[in-house]
Specification:
Layout: E1 3-8, E2 15-22, E3 26-31, E4 33-42, E5 60-61, E6 64-70, H1 74-82, H2 101-116, H3 120-131, H4 143-159, H5 163-173, H6 186-206, E7 212-213, E8 217-221, H7 225-240
Antiparallel strand pairs: 1-2, 1-5, 3-4, 5-6, 6-8, 7-8
Helix pairs in contact: 1-6, 2-3, 2-4, 2-5, 6-7
Length: 247
């Protein structure tokens, strides 16, 4: 299959007047042993570092448009399921119906950092760095990293929320799994979502249907959207024992 996508200017976020051809190669990356990490990545000519709405949404397979479905709140929901608890709401809507888009974006960034960090302070530092327009080497960020930093900064200006202020709110909102935050759970969770992703990719490869993995989401020709929806439910439940939320 010929997989193509429109590219965007790194600074101005404007589409260039040409298509690029993607050559994604999926591979699993492990850390220390076979039970940690194991998430599916793609090479530099793949799609994972591309912006979802601005770029990945333009992907075509032999000229056919694509759709992207994702597991909503994947790792937070997984932690509830590992504890044997059902969880069907939005894990990032910490203020219920009063949660604004900006507040949700900050909450999502912080919760996912808490899951991957070895301490709450490390998560706060990681989030502040993600909001900075410069990287750790002092160079201005580019592409997706710059766009993400800009969106976090705008959300911070809109809400006035600091990441440190979110810690007690997160722990209170997710009290049943609060003991799992800040203890490097991400390595275990990525191992689980990597297993699920492999099963989904294998199923479609056996049918000669192209399917691209983006960790918690998958891109497929639009004519196979319902097949992907069913597969994402099936293999998640086989691994976790609960049904996911797929959007």
């Amino acid at each position: 299959h010929k997989i193509e996508m429109w590219t965007y200017d790194d600074e101005e976020n404007k589409p260039r007047k040409k298509l690029i051809q993607l050559r994604p190669i999926h591979y699993a990356r492990f850390t220390d042993d076979w039970e940690h990490h194991g998430r599916i990545y793609t090479g530099r000519l793949g799609h994972q570092n591309r912006r979802r709405m601005e770029e990945r949404s333009t992907i075509t397979f032999n000229g056919e448009r694509s759709v992207e479905l994702d597991y909503s709140g994947l790792h937070t929901r997984m932690m509830y399921h590992l504890e044997g608890l059902e969880f069907k709401t939005d894990p990032y809507a910490l203020w219920g119906d009063k949660t604004t888009d900006g507040a949700r974006l900050l909450a999502k960034q912080f919760i996912n950092s808490l899951i991957n960090a070895d301490s709450p302070q490390s998560a706060i530092s990681a989030c502040n760095m993600a909001m900075n327009y410069k990287n750790r080497e002092g160079e201005r960020k580019k592409g997706k990293a710059l766009l993400d930093a800009s969106r976090l900064y705008e959300a911070w200006k809109e809400t006035g929320l600091k990441f440190a202020d979110l810690l007690p709110i997160v722990l209170n909102s997710h009290q049943p799994i609060s003991h799992l935050f800040g203890c490097d759970m991400g390595m275990r969770l990525m191992n689980l979502d990597g297993k699920i992703a492999l099963k989904i990719l294998y199923q479609f490869s056996r049918k000669w249907i192209p399917c691209l993995s983006c960790h918690d989401s998958f891109i497929i020709p639009a004519t196979h959207e319902q097949d992907l929806f069913r597969s994402m439910h099936k293999f998640y439940k086989l691994e976790m024992g609960f049904l996911p939320i797929v959007k």
